[in-house]
Design brief:
The chain is α/β, with parallel strands linked by helices. It has a single domain, classed as 3-Layer(aba) Sandwich (Rossmann fold). Helix content is 32%, strand content 21%. The longest helix has 19 residues.
């Protein structure tokens, strides 16, 4: 009961006369939580780096599993970001605990990428967490993941994305894109590069799922676009309903401006 009173005390938004305090629905869109997917080299990390230029999202903490973040952030003001290499799932646990305490300077966090972190988690389920023991022997002695490992991986990834999504800060996830072909209809679709059911479950968690593409225009042969509305082919979505179908030359500032303007959000 005391816990329930505590929860009620924290809720100050009351709209129904004489009713219970609740959540301000605009708080849902105060913070960006977005999953970006695309083939390699299409600009996922470059997009995230634009968070350095907006005081609403800077400074940003980048959890770098792919190794490409230093290249994209090298020209940014070092006071606007921190890059941390991820070499174990425990690294992610420790950083989540640090962020959840709230005693930190960061306004955003990026996990780059879920594709690589899923492989890392599955690797640890199969081989254990002591990398020195794994590589002590013959690298050709490869173990196969068993059914229970895949089940653990699915649960681990879903929990991680949900927990980070719910942090009171801007959260960016990236994955590669995988191409799937329906063997019966021949239909081609593009979705996040995660195995099995994870490819269906993980995109359902963030508010925005965007596909970063490159298109040719009259003035720009390599224009970047962010597709945020599904076309029965590409997995994407926009729960904010503020971004339209396509954002040309996307930046973090462009997205936040559109969303905050739609919902009347201010600092």
């Amino acid at each position: 009961m005391s816990e329930s009173k505590s929860i009620v005390a924290k809720q100050q938004y009351i709209t129904v006369e004489g009713g219970l305090p609740g959540e301000d629905p605009r708080d849902k869109f105060k913070y960006l939580n977005i999953l970006l997917h695309s083939p390699g080299g299409h600009g996922k990390t470059t997009f995230i780096a634009t968070a350095c230029e907006d005081p609403r999202t800077s400074p940003i903490l980048i959890l770098d599993m792919e190794g490409g973040a230093p290249i994209r952030f090298a020209k940014k003001d070092p006071r606007t970001y921190t890059i941390r290499k991820i070499r174990s799932v425990n690294d992610i646990n420790q950083i989540y605990d640090y962020l959840a305490r709230g005693e930190h300077p960061y306004k955003s966090v990026a996990i780059d990428s879920l594709t690589e972190i899923q492989k890392l988690g599955l690797f640890e389920f199969v081989y254990g967490t002591d990398a020195s023991k794994v590589f002590k022997g013959n690298l050709l002695e490869i173990k196969s993941a068993e059914i229970q490992h895949w089940g653990k991986s699915q649960t681990q990834m879903a929990m991680m994305v949900r927990y980070f999504r719910d942090l009171p800060m801007h959260v960016f996830f990236t994955t590669l894109t995988q191409t799937l072909k329906d063997e019966i209809t021949g239909k081609i679709s593009y979705t996040v590069a995660l195995p099995g059911k994870q490819a269906d479950e993980i995109p359902g968690i963030p508010d925005i799922v965007g596909y970063l593409g490159i298109t040719k225009t009259k003035d720009n042969p390599n224009q970047r676009i962010l597709i945020v509305q599904p076309d029965n082919k590409i997995v994407c979505k926009d729960r904010t309903d503020a971004l339209g179908t396509v954002v040309e030359e996307p930046t973090v500032t462009k997205l936040l401006d559109k969303i905050w303007s739609t919902y009347g959000i201010t600092e």
